[in-house]
Amino acid sequence: MSLLVVGTVAFDAIETPFQKTEKIIGGSGTYIGLSASFFVKPIQLVSIVGSDFPQETLKYFNRKGIKTEGVEVKKGKKSFFWSGKYHMDMNSRDTLITDLNVLAEFDPVLPQSYQSPDYVMLGNIDPNLQIKVIEQLRNRPKLIAMDTMNFWMNTTPNELAKALKLTDVLIINDEEARQLSGEYALAKAAKVIMKKGPRILVIKKGEHGALLFQGDEVFFAPALPLEEVFDPTGAGDVFAGGFMGYLSSSNNRSFTNMKRAVVYGSAMASFCVEKFGPQRLTEIRKDHIQKRVGQFVDLAKFRI
Amino acid sequence: MSLLVVGTVAFDAIETPFQKTEKIIGGSGTYIGLSASFFVKPIQLVSIVGSDFPQETLKYFNRKGIKTEGVEVKKGKKSFFWSGKYHMDMNSRDTLITDLNVLAEFDPVLPQSYQSPDYVMLGNIDPNLQIKVIEQLRNRPKLIAMDTMNFWMNTTPNELAKALKLTDVLIINDEEARQLSGEYALAKAAKVIMKKGPRILVIKKGEHGALLFQGDEVFFAPALPLEEVFDPTGAGDVFAGGFMGYLSSSNNRSFTNMKRAVVYGSAMASFCVEKFGPQRLTEIRKDHIQKRVGQFVDLAKFRI
Fold first, then answer.
1. Do A222 and B222 touch (CB under 8 A)?
2. Residue A93 to residues A87, A268, A287: CA-CA distances in angstroms?
3. Closest in A219, A226, A228 to B299, CB measured
4. What pairing do the DSSP bridges indicate for beta strands B143-146 and B119-122?
5. Three-state secondary-structure class, residue A137
């Protein structure tokens, strides 16, 4: 199975109540791709970087089975840069700097080798670009998933509505679900959102777990109660990468299997927050993931 | 099995963004007792009311298997009265009125018939009174559980520390767990709290479910994603009543059975919020509870 991933490949500088980083590798495409790479190959990454982006990182992606033909390198330009500072609760954060740089020119063109992916994960970018990617696909993929955020709901609602109509799975957080639906109760929000296009909805609730909705079915996956959250950056993208990576590797779109995919996504996110940036994803192995998934099984298991 | 319940029996006036009530029946003893009455008999209720409290409510309690010999009626005095207003999120609330009335004189004396309960649930009252109740027990019960709140952590920390040492199970919410432990991460908070006395800890997270800790074991029970939360008043007490009611009726204190008890507590709480005050608890039957518990099974079930 092949998984097309569209998202940013960028630099981040992160500050938490405990520590701060210089510029490190970040971006939704990076997090989604690395997370999915534990499950499926090839991953076809679409993104844009400046000439300041390290070649060795792209080579590392390739060694992980992430193809980078679709990562445009803009000569003499700088990569997208985001800097943010987390509050004490490690949930809320302030953006300190957003330098769009090459991202302002992002106009994704799929290389020919990318035009028939089995699965598609569209990271949180301008819905116009999400639509553009979908329109370049030669065949309808087995499943198209997308992420979005409040910014696009406010600035490009019509384009977002169109993107949603083209999508099978929407993966957003609870605050975004509330804004998109205008409903506070997530069970109600889910019904409203599933009328907008996606027949499957994942609502990420951070430390409170994740909800999966399809038709009248609902599944709740817990989050692991962690003693330390070092850096939540990228956890949502890593969830999406694990979810779509697992789904595409198993090539089974039943609700039963989607529940498993939510658990794998949650397990991947639980690793991500253990170190700054994507560091932890470069250290873990498949057996770590299996062991972590076992902890989720123990955490949620009961018999009446 | 017998379950001793200590808590307030009182009047509440509740305002939500959607509706408001006049004085209705409330109090932790009411909610715990009614919830537990679906599982176990006899329930031995200890509380205090004024002569304004309706006799027919006490008779209703009796018909539900809740003994009221331990409910002192103060002639010519008024019952405890609390009035509060919920915010839009239905989680946070402002207290508008707290008229202690008879509660200021509450000095629980256990009738002789109450002095050897199998299980004990101490609702959220002054830890001095919680200790006083425990000291009147002639035999060590199979399990003593207690609730508490930020107010007692601030005003009577030494007495609270003593009460915790006498207790097997502490049932509190996430905010209270954070304050009691001084730790933000609940996994860390649990470790700190379990060193203070209780070997079992339940952390209620409202719409985000509940965590159960014992030693190195942890269990997460989801909350049902509800389309409407009508009134959250009493939901935490109803959880505790369902938890202790189920535990005492099954008389099995294994971790496996305690997980079931958390699910039954969560199911009871999910009913409570569907109408104002304890109304919903007067309508449901055992088969409603079994059906609701089935929804929790479906919600959390997955196989890797």
1. yes
2. 6, 21, 33
3. A219
4. parallel
5. coil
Task: List beta partners, residue A286.
Answer: none
Q: Do B302 and A208 touch (CB under 8 A)?
A: no
Q: Do A220 and B209 touch (CB under 8 A)?
A: yes
B190 touches chain A (CB under 8 A): yes
User: pTM of the full predicted structure?
Assistant: 0.95
Average pLDDT, integer, range A57-81: 98
* A219 touches B at CB < 8 Å: yes
Mean pLDDT, 10 residues at a time, chain B of 304 residues: 98 92 96 98 98 98 98 98 90 91 96 97 98 97 98 97 98 97 96 98 96 97 92 96 98 98 98 96 98 97 94
Instruction: Indicate yes or no: CB of B209 within 8 angstroms of CB of A228.
Output: no
Burial A77-98 (b: 16+ CB within 10 A, else e): bbbbbbbbebeeebeebeeeee
Q: Which domains, from first to last, does chain A contain?
A: 3-300 (3.40.1190.20)
CA distances, B32 to each of A45, B7, B38, B54 (Å):
55, 8, 11, 19
Complex-level ipTM: 0.92
Chain B, nearest residue to A184 by Cα: B89
